[in-house]
Specification:
The chain crosses the membrane at residues 5-24, 44-63, 84-105, 125-149, 170-189. Its EC number is 7.1.1.9. InterPro entries: Cyt_c/ubiquinol_Oxase_su3 (IPR024791), Cyt_c_oxidase-like_su3 (IPR000298), Cyt_c_oxidase_su3-like_sf (IPR035973), Cyt_c_oxidase_su3_a-hlx (IPR013833). Belongs to the cytochrome c oxidase subunit 3 family. This protein is mainly α. The chain has one domain (2-188): Cytochrome c oxidase, subunit III, four-helix bundle (Four Helix Bundle (Hemerythrin (Met), subunit A)), CATH 1.20.120.80. The protein has 6 helices and no strands. The longest helix is centred in the C-terminal third of the chain and has 33 residues, at 121-153.
Length: 190
């Protein structure tokens, strides 16, 4: 229950970031017309699909943890059907890391096009909203490492470890849903 309450507080934090975005956008709409033209929407869409696909791999890992109490693979690494929670969470970690690397590359490209955090209101809002989201993704990646480490360290993988994995998955799905909202507002909404 405490974890859900904490996620609700995170929701309020991101609601404030969305409010900031819309407020500044309404004050200086001309910046949005010129600056959003510099966004690479196909690139951001691919990066978004990578993050969204990580929610699916995360959920398969949770299913292995909750319903099968299977922390690790039971067969060959190449036999995906034999994977346990650990392997699915490693894949989720990899996809999340690719997303973060993609964001960093996008930042570098935007800075080269003159959009920096200190360039104007658009730059400030863009980097604050996507940057705070990126920090939350990194926090989720660290949480996956804790879950994986805990699974390796457990003498017997049981309900307690599965519950921990489930809580981390709630956080990860939350971060993914927030990104879908940010993607829609920043890249799609004109």
């Amino acid at each position: 229950m405490g974890f859900i309450v904490w996620l609700a507080s995170e929701l309020m934090f991101f609601a404030a970031l969305f409010a900031m975005y819309f407020t500044i956008r309404s004050v200086v709409p001309d910046q949005w017309a010129t600056e959003t033209a510099k966004l690479d929407i196909p690139y951001a869409l691919v990066n978004t699909l990578i993050l969204v696909s990580s929610s699916f791999t995360c959920q398969i890992g949770v299913w292995k943890a909750e319903h099968k109490f299977q922390p690790a693979r039971t067969g060959s690494l190449l036999n995906v059907k034999s994977w346990g929670m650990i392997e699915w969470f490693y894949l989720t970690f990899l996809l999340g890391s690719v997303f973060v690397a993609g964001q960093i590359m996008e930042y570098a490209t935007l800075v080269s096009h003159g959009i920096a955090i200190n360039s104007n209101g658009y730059g400030s809002v863009f980097y604050m909203t996507t940057g705070f989201h990126g920090l939350h993704v990194i926090g989720g990646l660290i949480a996956f490492l804790f879950v994986i480490g805990r699974a390796y360290g457990a003498k017997r993988f049981g309900h307690r470890e599965a519950t921990f994995a489930t809580c981390v998955s709630y956080y990860w799905h939350f971060v993914d849903v927030v990104w879908v909202g940010l993607f829609a507002v920043i890249y799609i909404l004109k």
